[in-house]
Amino acid sequence: MSYIVTARKWRPMVFEDVLGQQHIATTLSNAIRLDRLAHAYIFSGPRGVGKTTMARILARAVNCRSPRGANPCNECDMCQEITGGRSLDVIEIDGASNRGIDEIRNLRESARYAPVKGKRKIYIIDEVHMLTKEAFNALLKTLEEPPSQVLFIFATTEVHKVPSTILSRCQRFEFRRIPVEQIVERLRFISQNEAITIDEESLLRIAKKGEGSMRDSQSIFDQVASFCGETIRAEDTNRVLNVVDEAFFFRVTDLVKQRDTKEAVALAAEIVDRGYDIREFLNCTAEHLRNLLICAATGDASLLEVSPQVRVRYAEEAREFSEEDLLRLITFIVEAENAVRWAPQPRFRLEACFVQLAKFDRAVEIQPLIERIERLTGGSSGPEGGNTAPADRPESTGGALRSSGKPKDTPTRAAGEGIPSAAAIGETAHARREALSPAADPPKVPMVSGPPDPANAEAVLPQWNSLVDVVRKDKIHLGMILDEARIAGVVDGVLRVTVPDKLHLARLKKEKQWLTERLQTVAGTKLLLDFEYAERPVSPHGSSGTQAPPAGGSEGLHPIEQTIIREFGAEPLEG
Question: Are residues 203 and 291 in the same domain?
Answer without folding.
Answer: no
